[in-house]
Design brief:
This protein is of the alpha+beta class. The chain has two helices and two strands; from the N terminus they run αββα. A hairpin with a 2-residue loop joins strand 1 (24-32) and strand 2. The radius of gyration is 13 Å and the shape is elongated. The N and C termini lie far apart (29 Å). The relative contact order is 0.19.
């Protein structure tokens, strides 16, 4: 989400994000055997266009983090 104020998925709850200081975020689901186990959230205090490289890195970190926790 590049901007919680303008994204239709989050605009209705933008005040809650603003109270947390979140203006943009990436949410990476951690799924094993078809079951949702957790999410890794990355957020920014400013609007932001997340690059494909940043999203791929977040996905890799989520997978490694879960593997370390198992």
């Amino acid at each position: 989400v590049q901007d919680v104020d303008t994204d239709p998925r989050t605009s209705g709850g933008a005040e809650g994000f603003e109270r947390l200081g979140v203006r943009a975020f990436v949410r990476v689901p951690i799924v094993r055997a078809g079951r949702l186990l957790a999410f890794l959230f990355l957020h920014s205090h400013d609007t932001r266009q997340w690059t494909n490289e940043e999203i791929e890195l977040a996905e890799e970190v989520a997978h490694r983090l879960w593997a370390a926790l198992e």
